[in-house]
Amino acid sequence: MKTRYSSLVAIKKNAMQQSEQQLQKANQALHSAQEALRLSLEELQNIPPLEHGKASDFLANRTLLDSQRRLIVHNENWVVYASRDVERAKEQLKLVTIEYEKFKYLEHQEIQRILQEVKTKESKDLDEVALMTFMQNREIRQAI
Length: 144
Prior knowledge:
Layout: H1 6-46, H2 55-143
Helix pairs in contact: 1-2
């Protein structure tokens, strides 16, 4: 049944679905960031410590360690950013869902009001028909 809220409910539902998609994308980005951080930490553990060798080998090893540490810091920042993005998406979804539920409730109330009006009109019509039938039967009995 169409009401004055039907189009608004459809719009709010589309907005809610878009927010759900954004939340899914944010969750995927967070998962990717966490996976990249995990891999970079594993890679740091896999770099063998040098105990003896040339100075150039020690410098190369130190450069590799520094580079891996910078990558870890970068990935940690990425996880923090992705986590904030997920929280923003959750908050947006919450707000949009509340709006959708509000208009859906209003639409439901409008439908209930319309149905009640229809029932009342049908009841009045039936009462009128019953009264007319009763009066016709009464007139027929009086005529006999």
